[in-house]
Amino acid sequence: MSASVVAVKATAAVASDKRGRVAILSIIAGILMLLFLPVIVLSSVLDDISSTQFDINEVYQIIDTNMSQETRDNIQHLNDVTENISKEFAGRGFDELTIKKAQAVYACAFYDTEKADSSFVNKLVGCYERASEEDDLPEILSDTFDKEIDKDDFSNLMSIIKINVIDIGNISPDKTNNGLVEWAKFAYDNGWGYVWGSYGNVLTENQLQQYISISGSRVSDKEEYIRSHWMGRRTSDCVGLIKGYGWYNSDTGKIEYGTNGMPDLSANGMHNAAIEKGPMSTMPEIPGLAVWQEGHIGIYIGNGYVIQAANTFEGVIKTKLSYNRWQEWLKVPFINYEEGETA
Question: What sections of the chain are H helices per DSSP?
Protein backbone atom coordinates (compact mmCIF):
# COMPACT_ATOMS: atom_id res chain seq x y z
CA MET A 1 0.00 0.00 0.00
CA SER A 2 1.39 3.44 -0.93
CA ALA A 3 2.72 5.71 1.78
CA SER A 4 0.64 8.51 0.29
CA VAL A 5 -2.58 6.92 1.50
CA VAL A 6 -4.19 9.09 4.17
CA ALA A 7 -7.06 8.65 6.59
CA VAL A 8 -10.57 9.60 5.55
CA LYS A 9 -13.06 10.60 8.19
CA ALA A 10 -15.72 7.99 8.89
CA THR A 11 -19.26 8.76 7.77
CA ALA A 12 -21.27 10.89 10.17
CA ALA A 13 -23.36 7.95 11.28
CA VAL A 14 -20.33 5.90 12.28
CA ALA A 15 -18.20 8.72 13.67
CA SER A 16 -21.00 9.94 15.93
CA ASP A 17 -21.41 6.50 17.49
CA LYS A 18 -18.92 5.69 20.25
CA ARG A 19 -18.82 1.98 19.41
CA GLY A 20 -18.34 2.86 15.76
CA ARG A 21 -15.36 5.02 16.66
CA VAL A 22 -13.69 2.16 18.44
CA ALA A 23 -14.41 -0.25 15.59
CA ILE A 24 -12.77 1.94 12.95
CA LEU A 25 -9.89 3.26 15.07
CA SER A 26 -7.36 0.58 14.19
CA ILE A 27 -7.98 0.94 10.47
CA ILE A 28 -7.69 4.72 10.61
CA ALA A 29 -4.57 4.52 12.80
CA GLY A 30 -2.88 2.17 10.39
CA ILE A 31 -3.62 4.41 7.42
CA LEU A 32 -2.45 7.49 9.30
CA MET A 33 0.84 5.76 10.03
CA LEU A 34 1.40 5.42 6.31
CA LEU A 35 1.41 9.21 6.12
CA PHE A 36 3.82 9.43 9.06
CA LEU A 37 1.16 10.53 11.56
CA PRO A 38 1.75 8.95 14.97
CA VAL A 39 -1.07 7.02 16.63
CA ILE A 40 -0.74 9.33 19.64
CA VAL A 41 -2.14 12.18 17.53
CA LEU A 42 -5.17 10.15 16.55
CA SER A 43 -5.91 9.23 20.17
CA SER A 44 -5.85 12.91 21.10
CA VAL A 45 -8.51 13.59 18.46
CA LEU A 46 -10.78 10.72 19.45
CA ASP A 47 -11.10 11.79 23.07
CA ASP A 48 -13.31 8.87 24.10
CA ILE A 49 -10.39 6.49 23.66
CA SER A 50 -7.41 8.68 24.45
CA SER A 51 -5.93 6.16 26.87
CA THR A 52 -5.81 3.32 24.33
CA GLN A 53 -2.38 2.04 23.28
CA PHE A 54 -1.66 0.30 19.99
CA ASP A 55 0.84 -2.14 18.58
CA ILE A 56 1.06 -0.97 14.97
CA ASN A 57 1.98 -4.43 13.70
CA GLU A 58 -1.23 -5.72 15.25
CA VAL A 59 -3.11 -2.85 13.61
CA TYR A 60 -1.75 -3.83 10.19
CA GLN A 61 -2.80 -7.43 10.81
CA ILE A 62 -6.31 -6.28 11.73
CA ILE A 63 -6.45 -4.24 8.55
CA ASP A 64 -5.33 -7.15 6.41
CA THR A 65 -7.65 -9.78 7.89
CA ASN A 66 -10.82 -7.81 8.61
CA MET A 67 -11.12 -5.21 5.89
CA SER A 68 -14.15 -5.66 3.64
CA GLN A 69 -13.83 -5.44 -0.12
CA GLU A 70 -15.77 -2.18 -0.04
CA THR A 71 -13.24 -0.72 2.40
CA ARG A 72 -10.37 -1.97 0.26
CA ASP A 73 -11.94 -0.30 -2.77
CA ASN A 74 -12.34 2.96 -0.83
CA ILE A 75 -8.70 2.87 0.24
CA GLN A 76 -7.60 2.17 -3.31
CA HIS A 77 -9.65 5.17 -4.42
CA LEU A 78 -7.97 7.29 -1.74
CA ASN A 79 -4.62 6.08 -2.97
CA ASP A 80 -5.43 6.90 -6.60
CA VAL A 81 -6.61 10.41 -5.79
CA THR A 82 -3.68 11.21 -3.48
CA GLU A 83 -1.29 10.02 -6.16
CA ASN A 84 -3.02 12.33 -8.64
CA ILE A 85 -2.71 15.19 -6.14
CA SER A 86 0.99 14.44 -5.77
CA LYS A 87 1.59 14.48 -9.51
CA GLU A 88 -0.45 17.64 -10.14
CA PHE A 89 1.08 19.60 -7.26
CA ALA A 90 4.62 18.48 -8.07
CA GLY A 91 4.08 19.41 -11.70
CA ARG A 92 3.21 22.94 -10.61
CA GLY A 93 6.28 23.30 -8.43
CA PHE A 94 4.95 22.60 -4.92
CA ASP A 95 7.26 20.95 -2.40
CA GLU A 96 6.72 17.60 -0.68
CA LEU A 97 5.46 19.09 2.58
CA THR A 98 2.75 21.08 0.80
CA ILE A 99 1.77 17.99 -1.16
CA LYS A 100 1.34 15.96 2.05
CA LYS A 101 -0.78 18.74 3.52
CA ALA A 102 -2.99 18.89 0.43
CA GLN A 103 -3.45 15.11 0.49
CA ALA A 104 -4.50 15.26 4.14
CA VAL A 105 -6.94 18.10 3.45
CA TYR A 106 -8.52 16.05 0.69
CA ALA A 107 -8.87 12.90 2.78
CA CYS A 108 -10.11 14.60 5.93
CA ALA A 109 -12.47 17.14 4.39
CA PHE A 110 -13.22 16.47 0.73
CA TYR A 111 -13.40 12.73 0.20
CA ASP A 112 -17.09 12.81 -0.74
CA THR A 113 -16.75 16.12 -2.59
CA GLU A 114 -14.08 14.72 -4.88
CA LYS A 115 -16.24 11.78 -5.92
CA ALA A 116 -18.85 14.18 -7.32
CA ASP A 117 -16.41 16.57 -8.99
CA SER A 118 -14.19 15.31 -11.81
CA SER A 119 -12.15 18.53 -11.74
CA PHE A 120 -11.51 18.35 -7.98
CA VAL A 121 -7.72 17.95 -8.10
CA ASN A 122 -7.31 20.86 -10.51
CA LYS A 123 -9.51 23.05 -8.29
CA LEU A 124 -7.57 21.99 -5.19
CA VAL A 125 -4.20 22.96 -6.62
CA GLY A 126 -5.79 26.22 -7.78
CA CYS A 127 -6.72 26.99 -4.18
CA TYR A 128 -3.11 26.57 -3.10
CA GLU A 129 -1.90 28.76 -5.97
CA ARG A 130 -4.27 31.57 -4.97
CA ALA A 131 -3.34 31.46 -1.28
CA SER A 132 -0.60 33.96 -0.44
CA GLU A 133 -0.11 32.17 2.89
CA GLU A 134 -1.40 29.01 4.55
CA ASP A 135 -3.83 30.87 6.81
CA ASP A 136 -5.76 31.97 3.70
CA LEU A 137 -6.56 28.42 2.66
CA PRO A 138 -9.60 27.61 4.87
CA GLU A 139 -11.59 30.51 3.40
CA ILE A 140 -10.44 29.81 -0.17
CA LEU A 141 -11.25 26.11 0.15
CA SER A 142 -14.65 26.88 1.69
CA ASP A 143 -15.57 29.26 -1.13
CA THR A 144 -14.30 26.95 -3.88
CA PHE A 145 -16.04 23.79 -2.72
CA ASP A 146 -19.01 25.36 -0.89
CA LYS A 147 -18.09 23.52 2.31
CA GLU A 148 -17.18 25.14 5.61
CA ILE A 149 -13.62 24.46 6.79
CA ASP A 150 -13.02 25.12 10.48
CA LYS A 151 -9.86 27.21 10.83
CA ASP A 152 -8.80 25.60 14.10
CA ASP A 153 -9.20 22.07 12.73
CA PHE A 154 -7.29 23.08 9.62
CA SER A 155 -4.47 24.61 11.67
CA ASN A 156 -4.18 21.52 13.85
CA LEU A 157 -4.01 19.25 10.81
CA MET A 158 -1.28 21.39 9.24
CA SER A 159 0.72 21.29 12.48
CA ILE A 160 0.48 17.50 12.63
CA ILE A 161 1.78 17.13 9.09
CA LYS A 162 4.62 19.60 9.65
CA ILE A 163 5.79 17.82 12.78
CA ASN A 164 5.83 14.41 11.18
CA VAL A 165 7.07 14.93 7.63
CA ILE A 166 10.75 15.65 7.10
CA ASP A 167 11.02 18.28 4.40
CA ILE A 168 14.17 20.36 4.38
CA GLY A 169 13.98 21.59 0.83
CA ASN A 170 16.19 20.50 -2.00
CA ILE A 171 18.86 18.95 0.17
CA SER A 172 21.46 17.01 -1.75
CA PRO A 173 21.60 13.26 -1.20
CA ASP A 174 25.36 13.74 -0.84
CA LYS A 175 26.27 14.11 2.81
CA THR A 176 27.99 17.46 3.30
CA ASN A 177 28.69 19.99 6.02
CA ASN A 178 26.21 22.42 4.47
CA GLY A 179 23.55 19.72 4.38
CA LEU A 180 24.21 18.99 8.05
CA VAL A 181 23.64 22.66 8.85
CA GLU A 182 20.29 22.64 7.04
CA TRP A 183 19.32 19.46 8.89
CA ALA A 184 20.18 21.02 12.25
CA LYS A 185 18.22 24.17 11.40
CA PHE A 186 15.22 22.07 10.41
CA ALA A 187 15.33 20.22 13.74
CA TYR A 188 15.55 23.48 15.65
CA ASP A 189 12.86 25.29 13.64
CA ASN A 190 10.45 22.38 14.11
CA GLY A 191 10.99 21.99 17.83
CA TRP A 192 12.50 18.53 18.03
CA GLY A 193 12.63 17.04 21.50
CA TYR A 194 15.29 15.01 23.25
CA VAL A 195 15.32 11.34 24.20
CA TRP A 196 18.58 9.53 24.90
CA GLY A 197 19.31 7.11 22.05
CA SER A 198 16.96 8.66 19.48
CA TYR A 199 18.03 10.13 16.15
CA GLY A 200 15.16 12.01 14.56
CA ASN A 201 12.20 9.67 14.23
CA VAL A 202 8.75 10.40 15.62
CA LEU A 203 8.58 9.12 19.19
CA THR A 204 6.03 6.32 19.57
CA GLU A 205 5.13 4.15 22.53
CA ASN A 206 7.09 1.19 21.16
CA GLN A 207 10.16 3.34 20.57
CA LEU A 208 10.00 4.85 24.04
CA GLN A 209 9.92 1.38 25.59
CA GLN A 210 12.91 0.39 23.45
CA TYR A 211 14.89 3.41 24.59
CA ILE A 212 14.06 2.60 28.20
CA SER A 213 15.17 -1.01 27.78
CA ILE A 214 18.44 0.07 26.15
CA SER A 215 19.30 3.20 28.11
CA GLY A 216 17.64 2.46 31.44
CA SER A 217 17.41 5.30 33.93
CA ARG A 218 18.71 7.88 31.44
CA VAL A 219 15.24 7.63 29.90
CA SER A 220 13.04 6.05 32.56
CA ASP A 221 13.86 8.69 35.19
CA LYS A 222 12.46 11.32 32.83
CA GLU A 223 9.64 9.25 31.36
CA GLU A 224 6.84 11.45 32.70
CA TYR A 225 8.35 14.58 31.17
CA ILE A 226 9.05 12.81 27.88
CA ARG A 227 5.46 11.61 27.65
CA SER A 228 3.99 15.04 28.36
CA HIS A 229 6.34 16.99 26.07
CA TRP A 230 7.86 14.83 23.33
CA MET A 231 5.52 11.91 22.59
CA GLY A 232 4.36 12.09 18.98
CA ARG A 233 7.13 14.51 18.04
CA ARG A 234 10.55 13.97 16.48
CA THR A 235 13.31 13.50 19.03
CA SER A 236 17.08 13.12 19.03
CA ASP A 237 19.98 13.00 21.43
CA CYS A 238 23.09 15.06 20.79
CA VAL A 239 24.99 12.74 18.49
CA GLY A 240 21.70 11.44 17.09
CA LEU A 241 21.26 14.82 15.44
CA ILE A 242 24.36 14.05 13.38
CA LYS A 243 23.60 10.37 12.82
CA GLY A 244 20.02 11.12 11.76
CA TYR A 245 21.35 13.34 8.99
CA GLY A 246 23.83 10.68 7.95
CA TRP A 247 21.09 8.06 7.82
CA TYR A 248 18.47 10.24 6.13
CA ASN A 249 17.42 9.02 2.68
CA SER A 250 16.24 12.03 0.67
CA ASP A 251 14.53 9.74 -1.86
CA THR A 252 12.28 8.05 0.69
CA GLY A 253 12.10 10.83 3.29
CA LYS A 254 13.06 8.31 5.97
CA ILE A 255 15.90 7.93 8.42
CA GLU A 256 17.37 4.51 7.69
CA TYR A 257 19.51 3.24 10.54
CA GLY A 258 23.17 2.50 9.84
CA THR A 259 23.14 3.62 6.19
CA ASN A 260 25.30 5.88 4.02
CA GLY A 261 28.53 4.80 5.68
CA MET A 262 27.63 6.45 9.00
CA PRO A 263 28.23 4.03 11.91
CA ASP A 264 26.31 4.18 15.18
CA LEU A 265 28.74 6.11 17.36
CA SER A 266 28.49 7.96 20.65
CA ALA A 267 29.50 11.61 20.96
CA ASN A 268 32.94 10.52 22.16
CA GLY A 269 33.09 7.89 19.44
CA MET A 270 32.37 10.53 16.79
CA HIS A 271 35.15 12.68 18.23
CA ASN A 272 37.59 9.78 18.34
CA ALA A 273 36.82 8.85 14.72
CA ALA A 274 37.47 12.37 13.44
CA ILE A 275 40.72 12.89 11.54
CA GLU A 276 40.66 16.69 11.48
CA LYS A 277 40.09 18.29 14.88
CA GLY A 278 41.68 20.62 17.34
CA PRO A 279 41.28 22.88 20.38
CA MET A 280 38.64 25.60 20.24
CA SER A 281 41.31 28.30 19.95
CA THR A 282 42.13 26.95 16.47
CA MET A 283 38.57 26.49 15.22
CA PRO A 284 38.09 27.65 11.61
CA GLU A 285 34.91 29.45 10.47
CA ILE A 286 33.33 26.46 8.72
CA PRO A 287 29.59 25.85 9.16
CA GLY A 288 28.91 22.18 9.70
CA LEU A 289 31.84 21.53 12.00
CA ALA A 290 31.00 19.68 15.18
CA VAL A 291 31.93 21.05 18.59
CA TRP A 292 32.67 18.56 21.34
CA GLN A 293 33.07 18.29 25.07
CA GLU A 294 33.30 15.10 27.07
CA GLY A 295 30.12 13.11 26.41
CA HIS A 296 28.37 15.80 24.33
CA ILE A 297 28.44 17.16 20.78
CA GLY A 298 26.79 19.97 18.83
CA ILE A 299 26.68 21.34 15.28
CA TYR A 300 28.25 24.70 14.47
CA ILE A 301 25.98 26.56 12.01
CA GLY A 302 28.14 29.63 11.49
CA ASN A 303 28.22 33.22 12.75
CA GLY A 304 29.02 32.10 16.28
CA TYR A 305 26.01 29.83 16.81
CA VAL A 306 25.55 26.13 17.61
CA ILE A 307 22.48 23.91 17.32
CA GLN A 308 22.48 21.03 19.76
CA ALA A 309 20.12 18.43 21.19
CA ALA A 310 20.79 19.67 24.70
CA ASN A 311 18.86 17.53 27.17
CA THR A 312 15.43 16.08 27.93
CA PHE A 313 14.03 19.32 29.27
CA GLU A 314 15.27 21.69 26.56
CA GLY A 315 15.22 19.53 23.43
CA VAL A 316 16.96 20.90 20.34
CA ILE A 317 18.16 24.46 20.97
CA LYS A 318 20.27 27.15 19.31
CA THR A 319 22.95 28.76 21.45
CA LYS A 320 25.97 30.97 21.15
CA LEU A 321 29.24 29.11 20.76
CA SER A 322 30.23 30.32 24.22
CA TYR A 323 27.14 28.75 25.84
CA ASN A 324 28.90 25.42 26.45
CA ARG A 325 32.43 24.72 27.56
CA TRP A 326 33.34 23.11 24.28
CA GLN A 327 36.75 21.47 24.33
CA GLU A 328 37.44 20.76 20.66
CA TRP A 329 36.09 21.26 17.17
CA LEU A 330 36.09 18.49 14.58
CA LYS A 331 35.14 17.75 11.02
CA VAL A 332 32.41 15.16 11.25
CA PRO A 333 33.75 11.94 9.76
CA PHE A 334 31.67 10.21 7.09
CA ILE A 335 30.48 13.47 5.47
CA ASN A 336 32.19 15.73 2.91
CA TYR A 337 33.20 19.33 3.56
CA GLU A 338 32.47 21.86 0.82
CA GLU A 339 34.14 25.21 0.40
CA GLY A 340 32.21 28.33 1.36
CA GLU A 341 29.52 28.96 3.92
CA THR A 342 26.02 27.64 3.77
CA ALA A 343 23.23 30.07 2.91
Answer: 12-15, 18-34, 39-45, 56-66, 69-91, 96-109, 111-115, 120-130, 137-145, 151-164, 177-189, 205-215, 217-220, 223-229, 238-247, 267-273
